[in-house]
Design a protein that fits this description.
The complex is a heterodimer of chains A (76) and B (270).
Chain A: H1 2-11, H2 31-44, H3 62-71
Chain B: E1 2-3, H1 7-21, E2 25-26, H2 32-40, E3 44-49, E4 52-59, E5 62-69, H3 72-81, E6 89-97, H4 98-110, E7 114-125, E8 140-141, H5 147-157, H6 168-176, E9 180-185, E10 188-198, E11 201-209, H7 218-229, E12 235-241, H8 245-253, E13 257-268
Parallel strand pairs in B: 5-6, 11-12
Antiparallel strand pairs in B: 1-3, 2-5, 3-4, 4-5, 6-13, 7-12, 7-13, 8-9, 9-10, 10-11
Helix pairs in contact in B: 5-6
The chains are: A mainly alpha (76), B alpha+beta (270).
């Protein structure tokens, strides 16, 4: 989780990702950030997130991102 | 060109590109609500060229051009191979941090696009709230009858390539959502403010005062109402032309600060 948080904070340093249950609906991440986040997660976890998984639901909070990473073969 | 009929097709396109090279570059940002709206309007089309998928979005009398590519060199090769229909202009928004976008805009330039404008993003974290008693009764929510006059007001005053003028359908949607504020004198639009709220983020999209009413403080009355309606938001963003010092200083006056994100608008005239 620490690593995911640190990636999120590198994209949006001014936001607190620990208190939100829905980053997209709460406006913590926007459509620009989503693309950066996919690239950062791919690189940092040496995976390639499936294009079909790139939807807002899979990036809505820390648990969703964690599940997405595991599904795409990341070793957490 | 093939029409895009579902958001799933976009995901499948991304997957197709990622399978070729893991990484991908794109200027097509994934806002599901917006994309679904465009699909409903039947304004999204796609063309597949080698390792690049181009997406076209019809907007009034020109097309926005988006790409999903394995890398930049493939993008520029296929951009060169792309057949652009005659008599239509194409607009590409190259969005990213200042240092990342120059190479892409240069690549577009070498394929016949010309630099049209550069926008910069400004943001503000919430500092204080506005009281209802400070609002002016001159500002009201636009009604559906205002949709066409608003569209005309915007198209007569804004640059169609760089200022993302909303379509009539988008204006009607904003009216339904009470995110379009208007001030009228008799039947004339004296000023308007159009915004979007996404969770706790408020995006100021258009803020415009009729040149005949510049002395009536309509601009400040509009923005005060906007801040009041967004009292629950903690982040405020907007895009501004990088050389519009007058607008930038106005936004700074209200607390907005410049970000490093920029949008270089490239246009291909046919």
């Amino acid at each position: 989780m620490e690593k995911i948080l640190s990636i999120l904070n590198s994209i949006r340093p001014e936001e607190d990702f620990t208190t939100s249950e829905d980053f997209i609906s709460d406006g913590l991440l926007d459509s620009f950030d989503l693309i950066s986040l996919v690239s950062e997660l791919d690189e940092n976890f040496s995976i390639s997130i499936d294009g079909m998984d790139i939807n807002q639901e899979n990036f809505k909070n820390l648990d969703a991102i964690k599940s997405l990473l595991i599904k795409n073969g990341a070793k957490l | 060109m093939l029409a895009i009929r579902s958001y799933k097709e976009i995901s499948e396109n991304i997957e197709k590109i990622k399978k070729l090279n893991t990484r991908f570059v794109t200027n097509f940002f994934l806002n599901e609500t917006k994309i679904n709206q465009w699909i409903e309007d039947e304004s999204l089309f796609t063309v597949e060229k080698g390792k690049v998928i181009f997406i076209f979005r019809k907007h009034t009398d020109f097309f926005y051009l988006y790409y999903i590519s394995t890398d930049l060199s493939e993008l520029f090769i296929e951009l060169n191979n792309l057949e652009f229909p005659e008599h239509l202009d194409f607009v590409a928004d190259i969005v990213g941090k200042a240092d990342e976008t120059n190479q892409i805009s240069n690549g577009f330039q070498s394929q016949g696009f010309i630099h049209h404008e550069t926008l910069k993003r400004m943001f503000m974290m919430k500092t204080n709230t506005v009281d209802e008693k400070d609002l002016s009764s001159e500002i009201e929510f636009a009604t559906q009858a205002d949709a066409k006059p608003v569209f005309d007001f915007l198209t007569q005053r804004l640059d169609k390539y760089s200022e993302q003028i909303p379509s009539i359908k988008e204006i009607q949607f904003a009216i339904d959502n009470q995110t379009l504020l208007i001030s009228k004198n008799n039947n004339e639009i004296a000023g308007l403010l159009y915004f979007e709220k996404i969770g706790f983020t408020a995006h100021l999209k258009e803020w415009l005062v009729n040149e005949n009413y510049r002395e009536n403080k309509i601009g400040s009355k509009l923005i005060k109402t906007f801040f009041y309606l967004c009292n629950n938001c903690n982040r405020f963003i907007l895009w501004v032309k990088e050389n519009n010092d007058n607008a930038i200083s106005k936004y700074e006056h209200y607390g907005y600060k410049m970000e490093s994100l920029k949008d270089t608008i490239m246009v291909k005239h046919n």
